[in-house]
Specification:
alpha/beta; FAD/NAD(P)-binding domain; D-Amino Acid Oxidase, Chain A, domain 2; 8-stranded mixed sheet; 35% helix
Length: 355
């Protein structure tokens, strides 16, 4: 069996690892010279998004044999709107390093591979691969292939402006900023690398590059962050948000970001990418229906994403009310520090209400 995997991100690497475990060595094609995002970053995997599986790092280890080391545990989240602040404590998830560093999640996954050929600096064409291989798994960090296949349903562009800042930070705490004056229906965040470095970013929806850069300055000014020294700032290419209406077209399977398996509320997609890559490998080698295998992941992403349509209608008064509610004694304990699968349950309701 000949399998080609297009893209050596977390999804493609997870797919290649599972292929090896099942006795098949795939060919992994990557257009960059190594694995990992060009820019270093810290992702946040919130525990509230993974109540259906429990501790997400333990779950990936037990269910999929992916023993990953997070950067650290998140024990505090600060939510800020123009006139309200809520501080939530508990076991709130994990910080995950992304990029080309030795401890990035991509580098960790690459170390699991033993025999797989990784073809770096290869901008491979999925159509050509589909003619030369029995199966092609597309795991690219963009939606060019699903759009070309006619299965992509677009829901807008997200632009990110941010960078690495020097300062004095709590390495176990993240801050989420909600203010329509600079973020619109998006958000800004501060996520620590360490006690001295943090990722600070603004995530806008529907803005062009010029506006996003301007609004980033407004964000820093309004939130009192202009005193921070940035090692660098950057404006990556925009990300298309949306989903596919088919996960398989002929002998081509779509997984991870290329399958739209990134929730459209905060943009968390690492765990879903890893799982969908593994399921793609299992479906091919074990002759199983990939669409059925990935259905649970798709439903989970859709449930979280259903909050996006509500948030898009919020103004700053709504954000103030939301955070004031979350700051009410008892409410934040129910939402954040119980085993109630609040996000999925509420998401299912919202999904039907907003159809």
């Amino acid at each position: 069996m000949k399998i080609a995997i297009l893209g050596a991100g977390v999804t493609g690497l997870a797919c290649a690892i599972e292929c090896e475990r099942l006795g098949v060595c795939a060919d992994l094609y990557e257009r960059d010279h190594t694995v990992g995002w060009i820019w270093p970053s810290v992702s946040y995997w919130p525990s509230i998004f993974f109540r259906d599986t429990g501790d997400i790092v333990d779950y990936l280890k037990k269910e999929y044999k992916m023993d990953l080391n997070p950067l650290g545990e998140c024990k505090n989240i600060v939510l800020k709107s123009p006139n309200q602040t809520a501080s939530i404590n508990g076991k709130l998830g994990y910080f995950i390093t992304r990029g080309k560093g030795d401890e990035s999640i991509e580098s960790q996954l690459k170390r699991f591979l033993r025999k797989t050929a990784i073809h770096f600096n290869r901008n491979a064409d999925y159509k050509e691969l589909s003619r030369n291989y029995d199966w092609v798994v597309v795991t690219t960090g963009n939606v060019i292939v699903p759009r070309d296949l006619g299965v992509w349903e677009d829901e807008g562009l997200v632009r990110i402006m941010g960078g690495v800042a020097l300062g004095d930070f709590n390495h176990e705490s993240a801050t989420l900023y909600l203010d329509t004056s600079y973020a619109g229906s998006g958000y800004a965040r501060l996520t620590p690398f360490s006690t001295t470095q943090a990722i600070i970013g603004l995530y806008t929806i529907g803005c062009d590059a010029f506006d996003t850069e301007r609004l980033f300055s407004v964000f820093l000014q309004k939130e009192g962050l202009t005193n921070l020294e940035f090692i660098y700032k950057l404006l990556p290419p925009p990300f298309s948000t949306g989903k596919v209406n088919k996960f398989q077209v002929g002998n081509i399977l779509l997984a991870g970001r290329a399958a739209g398996l990134i929730e459209r509320l905060l943009g968390v997609g690492g765990p879903q990418g890893i799982i969908s890559g593994i399921l793609a490998a299992r479906s091919i080698i074990n002759n199983e229906d990939y669409t059925k295998q990935v259905e649970t992941v798709r439903n989970h992403v859709d449930n979280i994403s259903s909050f996006r349509k509500v948030i898009e209608k919020f103004d700053n008064d709504d954000y103030d009310k939301l955070i004031a509610t979350l700051n009410t004694p008892g409410i934040k304990q129910i939402v954040y520090n119980t085993n109630i699968n609040f996000v999925d349950l509420a998401g299912r309701i919202l999904k039907h209400m907003t159809k």
